[in-house]
Amino acid sequence: QVQLVESGGGLVQPGESLRLSCAASGSGFGKNDIRWYRRAPGKQRELVATISYGGRTYYIDSVKGRFTTSRDNAKNTGYLQMNSLKPEDTAVYYCNVPNNSHWGQGTQVTVSS
User: Fold this and answer.
1) What span, in angstroms and rounded, lies between the C-alpha atoms of 29 and 4?
2) Alpha carbons 71 and 34: distance in angstroms, whole number
3) How far apart, in Å, are the Cα atoms of 107 and each of 11, 40, 53?
4) 8 A C-beta contact, residue 79 and residue 20
5) In this predicted model, what pLDDT tens digit does every residue of 60-101 receive, in sequence order?
6) How would DSSP label each residue in 47-59?
7) Burial (CB count <10 Å: 0-12, 13-18, 19+), residue 55
8) Dist CA 34 CA 79 (whole Å)
9) Euclidean distance between CA atoms 58 and 60, whole angstroms
10) In DSSP terms, which residues pair with 19 in a beta bridge?
11) What b/e sequence results for 58-77 when a residue is b if at least 16 CB atoms lie within 10 Å of its CB, and e otherwise?
């Protein structure tokens, strides 16, 4: 099992940026993909971005060009750089790896003027 701790969220105005971090302990990320999810109020959790061990990335259409995910395999840490934030990005953000039943507490991102 991988234990995950997300951090870096906060309250920002539209157009501003945040950088989220995802620290893994236990068995660490290994060679797994790192997946970023979010759950907006009243909505189901959705996949936002993924990054493979080798650095291949995927983004949902609504964040393409604004969000960038990266990872430091030596530090067992993943990152989600979020630029040009919009109110609709408001959500609790989580990270996870495939087939891991443990979920961290997430980090709240609120975009509001």
Assistant:
1) 9
2) 8
3) 11, 12, 23
4) yes
5) 999 999 999 999 999 999 999 999 999 999 999 999 999 998
6) EEEEE-TT--EEE
7) exposed
8) 9
9) 7
10) 81
11) ebeeebeeebbbebeeeebb
Tokens of 32: 């797994």
Residue type, position 7, single letter: S
* Rounded distance between C-alpha atoms, residue 37 and residue 92, angstroms: 8
The CA angle 21-51-46, to the nearest 5 degrees, is 75
Angle at 101 between CA 26 and CA 3, to 5 degrees: 25
Q: Is it the case that residue 1 has pLDDT exceeding 90?
A: no
Contact 17, 11 (CB under 8 A): no
